[in-house]
Design goal:
Blueprint (H helix, E strand, L loop, with lengths): L1 E6 L5 E6 L3 H14 L7 H13 L1 H4 L23 H10 L14 H13 L13 H11 L7 E2 L2 E2 L9 H4 L2 H9 L10 E7 L5 E9 L3 E6 L4 E5 L3 E6 L12 H12 L23 H5 L18 E2 L13 E7 L10 E3 L2 E6 L2 E6 L5 E6 L19 E3 L2 E5 L4 E6 L5 E6 L14 E3 L2 E5 L7 E2 L1 E6 L5 E6 L20 E2 L7 E3 L4 E5 L21 E5 L6 E6 L15 E7 L2 E9 L4 E6 L4 E7 L7 E4 L5 E3 L8 H4 L12 E2 L5 E8 L11 H4 L3 E8 L5 E7 L11 E4 L3 E5 L4 E6 L5 E6 L9 E5 L2 E8 L2 E6 L14
Parallel strand pairs: 10-40, 22-25
Antiparallel strand pairs: 1-2, 3-4, 5-6, 5-9, 6-7, 7-8, 11-46, 12-13, 13-14, 14-15, 16-17, 17-18, 18-19, 20-21, 21-23, 23-24, 26-27, 27-28, 28-29, 30-31, 31-32, 32-33, 34-35, 36-37, 37-38, 38-39, 40-41, 41-42, 42-43, 44-45, 45-46
Helix pairs in contact: 2-5, 4-5, 6-9
């Protein structure tokens, strides 16, 4: 037995009794000296150790191993990854309430040296110089050790166990070695194995307890399938006595090699995978499940690929909607959420600025979360965290980042499988779009058109992230449309693509809306129509080549981007069965097209007052208004925001198209400055007859006009229209009459569109409010009925 005596700052003797075998000490010393990382020791670290030994070792122990008086500083997960500056601040401020005095009175150089030393005790393995052959360790990992049968690295391998792509950035070399040799003592949170027996069926499930509360548990079985169980349905939970992973017993050199390889794994770098993963996890959904969603699922941004936010669910109807209750809330660390969650088989996926979540759709409980810090130096909506939601396909969740990267996250672990940079050049790009899945490809767009960039729609292989095609929204030199820009090539003239498009499987056509030209109001260097801004593009989804286009506002100087939903419906129109595209534009006109060829069938104003144009001619061009007297510029160009990006819905029952609008145009003939000249400045929910464009009913929204609170519309086959008003109320109205049937006061501006889903026969309606996601349901559990509207 050895008795080690240390003196703390109060000069009290601490007795540590350590039982060792001298021979074992020798072995351990040999092992540590040969297997741990060897780092080049800088002078500030050497100086810091000297100051540490004199000032800190009495409480924190020699070499930072900790004592009964103060916590361990060496290999401390809470300190790993902290900057020297942050550690400096902690030492200077101290923790007086916990007994650590402030050391701010020390010379700055001493504090810097101390900070450098403490940080050196917690260097991630990737920042250390490891002994061992990483290439040989890689060979063992992927071959002899069969580690990839449970673990994934850089998008390849199995997602059953923890992803190891960044283990070298998260753990020190000694921690990695300890995990390998003593897995029972180092179980990754969420990967404790257990056996669960259910009450109702007596079914036995074995897997990892990803989450557990007093009310429910999330079990991931060994096939990567989640079982989300209320504890009321669980008969027993038996936790395994040992980790699923067995201790690795390798010769010293082989262990050094494996440790060196794992230490080199510091995260997924941008770029496509060289080949698809040969051991993909279970598929959450195939493309047919997105093209033809089963009742209860909401597998894509608008619930379906037609962009018609109209659900077949009827569990919540006109007869019971007044009993709708808030079932759960999920706060997110971000203001002004705009995303639409997607739901597949009871699991909800949601996204915000550089973050994504998998959640239990019945409770809102988080299963996993992905996060990276916001990107500094951005402009526009991307800079404030705008994100409109994720996409899902097979074993991946797809999200865009604020700096225009596209991420493929593993559906089971939430870790990055591949990451690509969408723009070819830096410029002012961001991305706020919810990606769109078509077949086995993922399609996305970019924002930043108000700051100078060249817009595009881009398509990637879902398996690898390989670029398949890119369609520029601004023509290049010698390309069709370049003649609409004057002498200069419009290399950075806007045309952003930040709203998800729609897809028609009957004509195999992708429809995508485009944004305004740049500079917005300064047109001195861009004469002409400025194609293909403010347009709908009909594209071949396999090549990106354009089939047809329509430009709503040629030569725009009022920011009337056409980034509003392109809704696809099949209806008898004026006596003939037709494939239609419906679009309510920001310029104040409602358009109906034959989507097979782009022929314009109807263009009519949906506003009571519209000043900038008197109508749309037979060729689809606006007929610009002229004014005889003085008219304020804002009113001369009004509207510039009649409709916006928020969701719309068409009911096959009423044949009406529902959208939120803004009535903001005043009377040009009224005296300047008068109430009549200034316009009402009011939001109005409207129901339009698609054959005539006539407004069949409307619901004015009293209260101040807050421009950044476009929420959108959801329709259901039970005859309901859900929307949010500017006073912070979530509302349900009768689709036939516009009568308000129910509302819930959130008292927060709502920016995200509503959606609906069902789990275990119960229908829910969800919407974001401020920084919170809300989900509502009835107190009872009515049986789901699809496609049978309540009369």
């Amino acid at each position: 037995m050895m008795v080690i005596r240390l003196r703390n700052k109060n000069r009290k003797t601490i007795r540590l009794h350590v039982v060792v075998r001298i021979t074992m000490l020798a072995v351990v010393a040999l092992w540590v000296g040969s297997a741990t990382a060897q780092s080049v020791i800088s002078q500030d670290v050497k100086n810091g150790k000297a100051r540490y030994d004199s000032l800190c070792a009495g409480c924190h122990g020699a070499d930072g191993i900790g004592t009964e008086h103060a916590p361990r500083l060496a290999d401390n997960p809470d300190l790993r990854g902290r900057s020297k500056e942050r550690i400096h601040g902690t030492i200077a401020a101290g923790f007086p309430a916990s007994g650590m005095p402030p050391f701010g009175g020390l010379p700055v150089q001493d504090l810097d040296d101390l900070s450098a030393y403490v940080r050196s005790l917690n260097l991630p393995a990737g920042e250390s110089v490891s002994i061992g052959d990483a290439a040989a360790g890689k060979q063992y990992f992927w071959s002899g050790g069969k580690c990839s049968s449970c673990h994934m690295v850089h998008g390849i391998g199995s997602s059953i166990g923890p992803d190891l792509s960044d283990i070298g950035a998260r753990l020190s070399v000694s921690s990695i070695r300890h995990v390998l040799t003593a897995p029972d003592l180092n179980i990754t949170p969420g990967y404790e194995a257990a056996t669960v027996v259910t009450k109702r069926t007596g079914k036995t499930l074995h897997g990892f307890l990803r989450n557990q509360t007093n009310y429910d548990l999330h079990l991931q079985d060994m096939n990567g399938v989640f079982h989300l169980l209320p504890l009321s349905e669980v008969a027993s939970v038996t936790k395994d006595k040992h980790a699923t992973m067995k201790p690795i017993d390798l010769p010293q050199t082989a262990m050094q090699n494996l440790t060196a390889y794992l230490s080199s794994l510091t995260g997924v770098e941008p770029g496509a995978l060289p080949a698809p993963n040969t051991t993909p996890g279970p598929s959450a959904i195939e493309f047919d499940g997105i093209l033809h969603p089963k009742p209860g699922n909401w597998p894509t941004y608008n619930g379906n690929l037609s962009a018609n936010r109209y659900s077949p669910l009827t569990g919540i109807n006109r007869g019971n909607v007044d009993r709708l209750l808030l079932k759960w809330i999920a706060p997110m660390p971000q203001l002004g959420l705009e995303a639409t969650p997607i739901v597949v088989d009871g699991i909800m996926y949601f996204s915000g600025q550089n973050q994504a979540y998998a959640m239990d759709a019945k409770t809102g409980r988080t299963i996993w979360r992905y996060f990276r810090p916001p990107t500094p130096g951005l402009v526009g909506d991307a800079s404030v965290g705008t994100n409109r939601g994720p996409a899902i396909f097979r074993d991946k969740i797809f999200v865009t980042t604020d700096n225009a990267h596209l991420l493929a996250l593993n559906r089971v672990t939430g870790k990055v499988m591949w990451e690509v940079v969408m723009p070819e050049e830096k410029e002012h790009y961001g991305s706020t779009v919810s990606p769109l899945i078509l077949n086995d490809t993922v399609i996305a767009g970019v924002s930043g058109g108000d700051w100078g960039m060249r817009g595009f729609v881009v398509c990637y292989d879902t398996a690898t992230g390989k670029l398949l095609w890119r369609h520029w929204t601004l023509p290049g030199p010698g390309e069709p449309g370049i003649e609409t820009w004057g002498k200069e090539w419009p290399r950075l003239a806007g045309g952003s693509t930040w709203l998800t498009g729609s897809y028609d499987p009957e004509t195999d056509t992708l429809f995508w809306p485009t944004g305004n030209p740049w500079p917005d109001s300064d047109d001195r260097d861009r004469p002409g129509d400025n194609l293909y801004t403010n347009s709908i593009l009909a594209l071949d989804p396999h090549t990106g080549k354009m089939k047809w286009y329509f430009q709503f506002t040629p030569h725009d100087t009022a920011d009337r981007d056409a980034v509003e939903p392109p809704v696809l419906v099949n209806e008898v129109y004026r006596g003939k069965p037709m494939k239609l595209l419906l679009h309510a534009d920001r310029n104040g006109f409602f358009y109906v097209f034959d989507r097979t060829n782009g022929k314009l069938l109807l263009a009519k104003s949906f506003l009571k007052q519209l000043n900038w144009a008197t109508g749309i001619d037979s060729n689809g061009r606006p007929q610009l208004a002229t004014f005889s007297g003085p008219v304020a510029t804002r009113q001369r160009k009004c509207p510039d925001n009649a409709a916006n990006w928020s969701s719309t819905a068409f009911s096959p029952v009423t044949k009406l198209y529902y959208l939120m609008t803004i009535e903001d145009c005043g009377d040009p003939s009224a005296p300047l400055g008068s109430k009549e000249a200034n316009g009402p400045g009011q939001r109005v929910l409207k129901a339009l007859d698609i054959e005539t464009g006539a407004v069949k009913w409307e619901i004015p929204q009293p209260g101040p006009l807050v421009l950044k609170t476009w929420s959108g519309v959801l329709g259901t086959a039970s005859g309901l229209i859900f929307y949010a008003d500017p006073n912070g109320a979530f509302v349900a109205a009768d689709e036939k009459t516009g009568k308000i049937l129910w509302h819930y006061d959130t008292n927060v501006g709502m920016k995200g569109p509503p959606m609906t889903y069902a789990v275990d026969g119960r229908q829910y309606v969800a919407i974001t409010a401020g920084s919170t996601l809300l989900s509502f349901a009835l107190p009872a559990q009515p049986t789901i009925a699809a496609n049978k509207a309540t009369k």
